[in-house]
């Protein structure tokens, strides 16, 4: 009951920080898709790029989040605004599932379908946009779904550098040893992650080729 009372009393601040959290996750996921999907396509069509691209994304994924924030802080222009820094860090972490699933989705298409498209006179660009991407879209979206869920969790750590979001409640609660504050950040973050997972999962199933 105390927790419910706290949520009711502080609903304005919780909503504000939730919107900040959504902003960080939304922008970083969009940027990761804009960069990761072309890199996945590049890796799928030119195997020489596969190891460098996926290897770099794998290495980024292994760097502890607080350490990555620390590495990026001294960068000119970027370190001046905490939200810019947090968005870049979240984008880098979201790249791996997007690149990997784009690569897997395109490489998993039946070669006979590609040959049939070539036989119909489709150019490489037409094959990509009219055959490969539509058939691989559900797999690609699955990677975006994973990236969103990862970003929702990692965005809570962005509060450590003053980027806002629901992590502010969590860090404040840890400093004050206050479980209500911790849950005020953790519960909305969990709801966001579950909602994104469910919603994108539904879209993914709708786009799956039949």
Which features characterize this protein?
210 residues, mainly alpha, elongated, 80% helix, 0% strand, 9 helices
How does this structure look, described?
By secondary structure, the chain is mainly α. The protein has helices at residues 2-9, 11-45, 50-62, 65-72, 82-107, 111-119, 124-154, 167-176, 179-207. Helix 5 crosses helix 7 (124-154). The longest helix has 35 residues, at 11-45.
List the helices and strands and how they pair.
Elements lengths: L1 H8 L1 H35 L4 H13 L2 H8 L9 H26 L3 H9 L4 H31 L12 H10 L2 H29 L3
- Average pLDDT across residues? 87
Largest sheet: none
Strand content: under 5%
Low-pLDDT stretches are none
How far apart are the first and last residues' alpha carbons, in Å?
A: 48 Å
Brief sketch in words of this structure:
This protein is mostly helical.
């Amino acid at each position: 009951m105390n927790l419910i009372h706290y949520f009711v009393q502080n609903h304005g601040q919780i909503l504000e920080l939730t919107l900040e959290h959504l902003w960080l996750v939304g922008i970083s996921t969009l940027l990761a898709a804009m960069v990761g999907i072309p890199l996945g396509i590049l890796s799928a069509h030119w195997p020489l790029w596969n190891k460098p691209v996926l290897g770099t994304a794998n290495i980024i994924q292994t760097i502890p989040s607080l350490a990555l924030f620390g590495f990026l802080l001294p960068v000119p222009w970027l370190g001046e605004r905490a939200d810019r820094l947090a968005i870049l860090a979240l984008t880098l972490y979201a790249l791996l599932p997007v690149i990997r699933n784009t690569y897997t989705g395109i490489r998993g298409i039946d070669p006979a379908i590609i040959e049939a498209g070539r036989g119909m006179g489709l150019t490489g660009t037409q094959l990509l946009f009219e055959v490969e991407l539509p058939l691989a879209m559900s797999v690609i979206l699955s990677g975006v779904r994973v990236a969103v869920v990862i970003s929702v969790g990692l965005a809570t750590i962005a509060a450590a550098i003053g980027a806002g979001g629901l992590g502010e409640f969590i860090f404040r609660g840890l400093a004050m040893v206050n479980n209500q504050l911790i849950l005020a950040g953790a519960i909305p973050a969990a709801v966001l992650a579950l909602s994104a997972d469910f919603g994108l999962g539904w879209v993914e199933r709708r786009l799956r080729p039949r």
